[in-house]
Design brief:
Elements: H1 2-11, H2 13-38, H3 45-58, H4 66-82, H5 93-105, H6 108-126, H7 136-215, H8 220-228, H9 230-248, H10 267-276, E1 280-286, H11 294-314, E2 319-326, E3 330-337, H12 355-365, E4 369-374, E5 380-387, H13 394-413
Parallel strand pairs: 1-2
Antiparallel strand pairs: 2-3, 3-5, 4-5
Helix pairs in contact: 2-3, 3-4, 4-5, 4-6, 5-6, 5-7, 6-7, 7-8, 7-9, 7-11, 11-12, 12-13
Length: 424
């Protein structure tokens, strides 16, 4: 039933407004009649009714011109008091409504100035009311108190609305900030993926070409064999690059059309690709292997891929050792290149890269720990610990993210000093 009335009220605002003013006038006229009955000296009827009608009619503009309407209703109420009417809440109905809307639609200072003016006006009008049981409370205090109470209620409603608006704006800003943060995170993720895909395959292709050029005179057959495998590296780079960039052009992610993300199951293919570039990789596993989530599986694979790419690209040694250590809660990845040996070294590349930064960001994103540095006995070592249960280590992820932001610039700026090891 209430829903039907609300629907009708929403579709007929003018009818609702007219009905409200008529009901208010009826209540005010009833207050005029009551006052005439209880007063010892009967005030004139029609002037009181006319003032009530004028005050109620003025309320039609209460939303657009609250101060002007307040002035009219205040003068009408004071006029009724001067005629000898007892200023009851029923008789003061238009003034109370006007005070409420003034408080809701004007500033705090204007509200209280208006309320105090109305209260003083009621007190002045009450002085002309004939003594009613010798009670100053009914003739002076009561009208002023009702005026102030109406203003207080309007101020409360205004504050509540302002608070609701502020809360809505704050929630909107938080949503915008969260969306902006997600966009930044997604952009960083895509940048890491593109860097890992392009850097790995192109570095292997570059190493293969360099090795083939080195062996062109001493072992032509081996050089031709390496050159023949170059299309495999470049083709793999193009396929992964196309798959990664293709996701950016899709509005949806149809699972049946997307190739599975690489993981540790693709580690033998990665080792074969490194072998084709002249890098000998030894893989050992400790502990009982555990199934990894897709995110952890991809993270572990990309870290190993980047570390081996850096060995191929920067290290003077042509060997590397990879160890996967499983415990009940963690997986530790260690990639080590030994002291330099008398092997053909790949060409040096000038400038720093983002290898350490990319590996650190990937580790931090899943709540793990990362360390990279020179070994005392020579060479370079990368150690990464990944939690197998990401829920238990969510707090660690949050704490490590701050340290990642603080240290990322330092890692990137120190890349050039690590060219003898794994660091890009």
């Amino acid at each position: 039933m209430s829903t039907n009335w609300q629907r009708r009220a929403a579709t007929r605002p003018q009818a609702v407004e007219a009905a409200t003013l008529v009901l208010l006038f009826a209540g005010t006229a009833f207050g005029v009649a009551v006052t005439r009955v209880i007063m010892s000296e009967t005030p004139p009827l029609w002037p009181g009714v006319a003032l009530s009608a004028i005050a109620c009619a003025a309320l039609h503009w209460r939303r657009d011109r609250p101060l002007q309407v307040l002035a009219v209703t205040l003068l009408c109420s004071m006029g009724q008091g001067l005629l000898g009417y007892l200023l009851t809440p029923g008789l003061m109905g238009p003034l109370l409504v006007s005070l409420y809307f003034t408080s809701v639609r004007t500033s705090r200072r204007t509200t209280w100035n208006s309320a105090l003016t109305a209260a003083v006006g009621m007190i002045v009008a009450g002085l002309f009311v004939p003594s009613f049981h010798n009670s100053l409370i009914l003739t002076l205090v009561n009208p002023a108190a009702w005026a102030l109470l109406s203003a207080v209620f309007g101020s409360y409603v205004r504050v509540r609305r302002e608070y609701a608006v502020a809360r809505t704006e704050h929630a909107a800003r938080e949503r915008e900030e969260e969306a902006r943060h997600r966009v930044i995170q997604e952009r960083m993720r895509i940048a890491r993926e593109l860097h890992d895909v392009v850097a790995h395959h192109l570095t292997l292709a570059d190493a293969q070409a360099g090795t083939a050029a080195h062996l062109a005179r001493t072992d032509p057959d081996k050089a031709f064999e390496i050159v023949a495998r170059l299309p495999e590296s470049t083709g793999a780079a193009l396929r992964e690059l196309k798959a990664t960039v293709g996701l950016l052009h899709q509005d949806t992610d149809p699972a049946d059309e997307l190739a599975p993300a690489p993981g540790l199951g693709h580690l033998p293919d990665l080792i074969d690709a490194c072998s084709a570039a002249g890098l000998e990789v030894t893989v050992t596993t400790g502990g009982e292997p555990h199934p990894l989530t897709p995110v952890l599986d991809l993270t572990a694979y990309r870290i190993l891929q980047e570390a081996l790419t850096n060995v191929t690209k920067h290290a003077t040694t042509r060997t590397a050792r990879v160890r996967l250590s499983y415990t009940r809660r963690r997986l530790t990845l260690t990639v080590t290149n030994d002291t330099p040996q008398d092997r053909p070294a790949p060409a040096r590349h000038s400038g720093g890269g983002f290898g350490l930064l990319s590996m650190r960001e990937r580790t931090t994103a899943v709540g793990g720990t990362f360390h990279a540095g020179r070994r005392p006995q020579g060479g370079f070592e990368v150690t990464c610990t990944l939690p197998l249960n990401s829920n238990e280590d969510s707090d660690t992820a949050g704490n490590n993210e701050n340290s990642n932001n603080e240290n990322s610039n330092n890692e990137n700026s120190n890349d050039d000093s690590h060219h003898e090891g794994l660091a890009p």
